[in-house]
Structure formats: structure tokens, C-alpha cells
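BUG: 3D viewer hangs when loading the predicted structure for this chain

Environment: internal workstation, default settings.
Expected: structure renders.
Actual: progress bar stalls at 90%.

Input used:
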Amino acid sequence: MRTAGKIISIKKAAALRAALKKAGKRAVFTNGCFDLLHAGHVYSLEKARSFGDFLFLGLNSDASVRRLKGPSRPINKVRDRAVVLAALAAVDAVVVFAEDTPLKLIKALRPDVLVKGADYRNGVVVGAEFSGRVALVPLLKGRSTTELARKLNRGRS
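C-alpha cells produced before the viewer hung:
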């Protein structure tokens, strides 16, 4: 699978970031659970990528998603989520992290731009102090994994 080469370790990501910096390239970082990929995710990832030359995507592990979203999540396992995200043109690298926040990963990468959804505020974006700047991307109204999961559950008998 060609997308598998885009799924990398934190160590490889840090080395890649160093090479990008040396080459004068702008590194962008965003993160999330991306449990059921939807149009809102694609929009935010494409917007994130527009802030620089290379987009690192931090992906919550299954255990991390469970702690954050509850025992019924994730719907899709981390390997499947990573493969789908790696197939997107906007995503240059996917790095899975096991912690509840991507702070360790952000510290390792020190991106030029840290991108989050506009529902966050600059003061509460984890890792903001380790990036050049924080960019908030507007959310697409009505697009949410939680809402998709509710619709799926309502459809069950």
C-alpha cells in the first residue's frame, strides 16, 4: 500500500521536520481522532495544508480516542484511520500518538503553524507555545463525527 509510507513514527517525523526546516520549508501540524472521515475533516485538512509546505497530522491512538470520546469509540481502528488519512493529497505524514493530547509530538516537531478548528481559542490550544503561530480554521456547520455516529445508532433496530 503506497499510503503506508506516509504513516511514520515520531522519530522519523522529527528527522523529517529538521530536513524541512533546513530546506526552508514551512511545516504545519494539526491533529484529531478522525474516526469517521467526513467533508468537515477534508475541508479542515485542506485549509491546514494551505498554511505551509508540509502537513503533519497527529492521529489519536485507539486508547486515546476511547479516553476522550467514550467506550463506544473509535468506530474505526487506528490503522484504518491512518491509511484513509494518508491517502488524502493534503496530508503529507500521519503520526499516531497515544497520549490524550499531542503535546509531546508538537514539542518534537515545533511546527511553523499549528492548526485547529475555530472552536478552540489561542490560549487553550495545546502546544501553542511550541509553534510559530496558531491558525484557527472555521468548522463546516453540521459536519461532526459525533453526529454521524448518532445517526448510525438511530438507524439500528
